[in-house]
Every structure is written in C-alpha cells, then in structure tokens.
Amino acid sequence: MKRRTDDVTAAAGGTSGRTPNARRRGRNGEEPMVPRATFDSYYGRPVIKAPGWSARDIAGYFFLGGLAGAGSVLAAGAHLTGRTATATVMKLSSLAAITLSAAALVNDLGRPGRFANMLRVVKPTSPMSVGSWLLSAYGPCAGAAALCAATGRLPRAGVAATGAAAVLGPAVAAYTAVLAADTAVPAWHGVHRELPYVFVASATAAASGMALVLAPSCESGPARCAAVLAAAGEISTMSAAERRLGMVAETYREGRAGRLLRAARVLTVAGAAGAALYGRRSRTVAVGSGVMLLAGSACTRFGVFAAGVASAEDPAYTVRPQRAAKDREGLRGAAGCA
Amino acid sequence: MTHHLLSGPEHDPARDAGHENAPPRVGFFTDTSVCIGCKACEVACKEWNAIPEDGMAFTGMSYDNTQGLGASTWRHVAFVEQSVPTGGGRTRLPLVSGGGTGGGEVRWLMSSDVCKHCTHAACLDVCPTGSLFRTEFGTVVVQDDICNGCGYCVPACPYGVIEQRPSDGRAFKCTMCYDRLGAGLEPACAKACPTESIQFGELDELRERAALRVDQLHKEGVTDARLYGHDPQDGVGGDGAFFLLLDEPEVYGLPPAPVVTTRDLPVMWRHAATAALSLMGGFALSFALSALPARTGRTRTGRRGRA
User: Fold this and answer.
1) In terms of DSSP H, where are the helices of A47-194?
2) How far is it, in rounded angstroms, from Cα A45 to Cα B248?
3) ipTM of the shown complex
4) Contact: B146, A120; criterion CB under 8 Å
5) Which residues of B touch A333 (CB under 8 A)?
6) pTM here?
C-alpha cells in the first residue's frame, strides 16, 4: 500500500499534493475515523459511482463481441478467397460468441425480463441503444451465415448473410469502446479517442487467434498476418491511451488492471510472434499461439474494465484532472481579460 | 453554427425535449451557509417518496451516517469539520469553539446534496430505453415501469447521483417530487427545510436570488462563499439544482468541473467509425499480404512474415 511520490508532481496545476486514502481503505478494510491528510475530498469517498456491471458479463461481452465481429470479417475474407474450412469455423465461432454475448448482456440487466425495452427507442446519444440495434441486426446475419455454411443449404443467402455480417461486425467490435468511453469514468472517458482503436485491435487479435486454433494451418496465412498487425496495433494504441491519460494512467498500471494488462501484452506479443514464426510449420504452435492471442484479448478487455472501476472508486482521478482543466481555463480567462 | 443539444448553453431544455407550452423551468437553490444539518430534508424525502431503508451504520464521518446519494438516498446532508485559524480571514461561522489557546477553531460545513437535474443530463442521454426523460418542468425523471436496470446511467452521471437498487435492479434518483410539482406543490425537502437552506422555485429567479445572496455574504466578509452549478456556460449547461458553497466543491464530495460525457460523443462515434474501417482494412491487408508470397513465392522463397 505504497503511496507514490510522483503524486505531488502529478498534481501540478491541481490542488495540493495531499492524497486521498480511498484505495488504502478498501484494501486493509480499516476505516480511519478521521480522513488522513488528503487533497480535499469528502472523507475519501468517490465522487462518481463506479458501474455496477459485473466484469464477467460486460468485460466478457466486450471480448466476445469483438471476437464475433472481427471473426465475421475474417470469415468473409476466407469465404472470398476460397478458404472454405476457415470461413465455416469462423462463422460458427462468431455465432457462438454473439449468442454468449447476448446471454451475458441480458444476464447483467437488473430486470432481465425487460430486455426487450432495449428496442423501445432508437437513440443515437445512447451507445447502448445503438449497440442493441446493431446486435439485433448483426446477430441474425451471423446466425444465417453460420447455418448456411454448416449445412451447405441456401448458398446465395449464405453469401448475403456473410457479407452483411462482415459489414456489421466491425461496428459491433468498435462500438463497445464508445459504450465504455461515454461515461464519467476517468480511465474510460479520458481515452475516448484511443479506445475504439484499442478495442478493434484486440478484436482482431481474438479473431485471428480463434482462426489459428480452429482452422487448418494451410489456410492460416491471413490470420497469422492479422495477428501481427493486431499485436502492433494494440501495443501502440494502448501506449497512446496511457500517454493521453496523464496521472489517470496509474489505473492502467496498478492493481488488478495493471496485472491483467501486463499479461495481455505478454500473451498478445507471444501469440503473434509464435504465429508469425512457426504458425505455418507446426500445428501445435499455431494452436498455442491462437490460445495466447485469445487470452491476451480477454485480458485486455478485463484490464480496461478493471482500470475504469479503479478510476471511478478513487476521487483523486475525478477531482485532479477536473481541477487541472479548471485552472487552465482560469488562466486562459485571466489572460483574455488582461 | 456549432449549436447542438449535447452541450453548451440551452435556455429551455423542456421545450427542446418536445414539451410545447412548458411551464417555466424549476429548480433548487441550496444555500449551504444557512444549513443547520437537521436532516429534515432527508427524512421528508424518504417519507414522501416511500424510499426503503438502505443501511444503518455509524461511519465516523462527523454526523453523516447517510454517506452519499444513491438509489435509496435522494437528499444527503454532508458534514465537513475543518480547522480554521482563529479570527483568520476565512468564513466567520464558528459553530464550535476550539477551546484552549492557539488551537484555532473548528468550522463545520453542512450541505444538503441532491440530484442536479442537469441541463445536459448524461444519465438521460445514455439511457437506452427512454426510461429517463425530461419533464415539462425541465427536471430529469426515471420511469420505473420502463427501466430495465441496464445500469448505464450510473457511471454516466458526473456527480455520482443515480444508482441501481440492489434489491430491485432498477435505477432510482431524485424526481424533484414530480408528483408534487404536478399538483402545484413544492418538493418535500424544500417544504421541510426549517432555515430555507433549500429553496425551490423558477430557476431564473433562483439564480438572481443566489447572485444577491453571494454578494451579500461577500460584503459581510464571507469571502469563501461561491455559487456552484449556477452557470449555463459550464460543462453540463448549468444545473437545475445549484448550490452556494463555503469551500471548494470537492470538499463536499462534488466534482470541481463536471462535463457531460456526451459532449464528446460525436468525436467518439467518428473514431469508432474510423476504427471499424481500420479493422476491415487490417484484414484486407492481411489477405492481400498472404496472397503475395504465393504469387511471388518462386522467386522470393524464404521471405515470410512481411507484415
């Protein structure tokens, strides 16, 4: 339970370097009767409320939705280039992933019986409304594509469904970043420009991983290539996100989120390297790399989710950036008046 | 013209939400300088709205055992104990004498917090079911027969007001006593407040009254007095419930400069669209690159992994 000394420097332009004790309290279960010397907060209590979403359901959905959406693009590419086995398994994987996603989403509702209310209005200001409509369009396409591929029936309808799923899939993979970023959660909203790129890179890694696990090695060229692109994309967009966040980036480096995101980096890079170097020659390496890519993608989503919760639970991450912004504005205002 | 309804000044949110012939926008002005911490507002709110009990605990946070706003707490009285230098230039509201010599004094700040009924309400913006809506009075209310407990409003609120009730699943918050407003009554908390710390009325009039009050306090030497949430130019377009505070907002657990998250939504959608296209582009590139070695493989054997 160290307090980092860089807090004081991180607070430059903000309030004093006094720090809150919220995180500390949470860990030892010991609640001081009087707040420790803090930057000014109300007894170290959070200013905003952390999402009540369960990590399994919602971070799990971010992962599964990405796997499904990116998988549909990979499936369509495989379909187009005559990699039939890959196309079929990826269509089935997308159907399975999106079905599990829907189950997770309904399960996370406070009133699961009212899930149909999600389609009561169309509301572009609500990423969840947009997402519900996207899923209700994408799900049937993914389902039809998978069924046609698996049964060999209605090939033309299968092609149409495959194409539609490939167009809607990237939207399914990308919008979840807006869903998270369109909140007051500092670690999510702060990276609202970068998060969509992180999420699509992570989705690409997951879909490539799934293809490496399921599809024959002779067809896995594109998946291996995509895995390398995804790993490079994820590493670079994550570091851009952390740079953007300033002191809030701590939430991406510490605690549960830090552990998950470090694991994600190792798994994704190792998976992509394994796939690129030995994925064609060894089926075992291909499967192992695929599993690592899938695990890495899941760790990224659960890590970003955990970072968001951590940033909401500590008032410092809400107050300090706002203070700094307010002070900057004050300076600008003063300069304007003079 | 860059005007849109996601952020910035908006004179008449009720009309912009589609209420024709809407009555004047109403709100709360909570003047914390006269709050005595009696919690009559908390009790009146619970009673009138039939809100269930949500935990009995001694927190050690001064006289505050309520802790914060939530699904079952729609008014919350904060108690802040501060040491201030004796006779210093700070607010002269000594409620407890420090005793002894040179110990300074303890200043006790009390403030009744409530949903801000933002001009640009993030909870309302992100609600996927349309359960949260803008009333004809310009307030923000949850329709409990529609809410499906998705919980999106909870992290969207920049003030940490709205919350899901664990025993119920749905989200709840202050309605500014929508039922009472409809019957021409003032909200229960304002009715119960014995010191007129909680003032209810037309928002424009409350803003004028608040400006006079803060001037008066400044003249009396209470230089720390400042308004919070009154400014239509702020990050949420001004609050329907605003405050006169005697210290920085964060001292009371309020965010110093909240911004409605949906202000940035157009930017987010643009980046998401670009990201979605880049996902497609990434796979297109992967298929193209893996086609290359097959074609040129005879002349360039041994060059793999060009990505």
Assistant:
1) 55-80, 84-108, 127-151, 155-181, 186-189
2) 15
3) 0.90
4) yes
5) none
6) 0.90
